[in-house]
Description:
alpha/beta; ER; oxidoreductase; NAD(P)-bd_dom_sf; ADH-like_N
Amino acid sequence: MKIDAYVVEGINEPFVREELELDNPGPGEALVRVVATGVCHTDLNTQSGDMPLPLPGVFGHEGSGIVEAVGEGVTDIKPGDHVIMGWAFCGECRNCVRGEHRYCLNIGAELLAGIRLHGPDAGTSAYSRTDGSSVSGHFFGQSSFATYSLTRANALVKVDEDIDLNLLGPLACGITTGAGAVLNTAQPGPGESVVIIGTGAVGLAAIMAARNTPATTIIAMDLQDSRLELAREFGATHTVNTRDKNIVDAVNEICSGPADYVIDCTGNIKVIEQAADAVGLMGTFILVGGAPAEARFSLDHMRTLFGKTVVGTLGGSSNSRTLIPALIELYRQGRFPFDRLVKFYGFDDLDQAIADAHEGGTIKAVLQVSS
């Protein structure tokens, strides 16, 4: 079938909208009409070459939509279902069997190979140009910068039809990444302290999640006062503009010592190395933000040796079908107001959405693809 999609021809090349051909769903696959898709920094990092999707390719990985057709063997998803497209995973490795789909042992290929990895058409892309040349798709299992997406059915999360699909796409990645870093990775106990550095969509989602835990000290840090004001509204008990104050000094002052949990949402190596020192004995430093490819950081050996945990978390850990429904229910209850982060753009306005996000005026840009 013919679809409209944004294609990136090469590293640092622009997003160009063009007509492509998309295959019908094969075994285990589903065709989804994309209603909306979030714009994430991971898309832009891939455009700049920091993530190795073969190019030319179709990006987009925060899609929501309506199932149009399903392939052979798909029984739990049917045409007409409203869905969020979660991350792809193999479903067979030991981590997938344990329910930790974010840590699928084949995750690199599942997200970035640009081709089908399963079924009779494995090794080929379902996306091609009108001249027959192949285009990488299947980005994070979905390539949702398009009017239609071919996805693995096991990655889909069904949602109730009374919830606006335009709003739900960011739950596929960015919002769940921040929330899951708190709810799945940190899991703070009564009276503990959580520091979130970087208050973009991921960091603000982490703050909303922290408010739903027994943590009593929630510290938000950023360079923008406007973001810090939002952080207060979403549950931060303290805010720090790191232009004015050193991270470690601020934490020690507020917590009367190091913090129990520090979550870095910036991916900035200088920030990471400083933030790690804000975690004390038996504390946990959680890496969330994506640094450039091949980035390295160093920690003080002795301070780390004394019971400090350093852990990375992908996509909020766990799996889409566990975490996403929980966040939707919290949203329904008024306890996770992620809708306040979203600004909508038309499908023609991808460049404007990216520009607004770079300038800080938009926290989470969402493209409305179809009605």
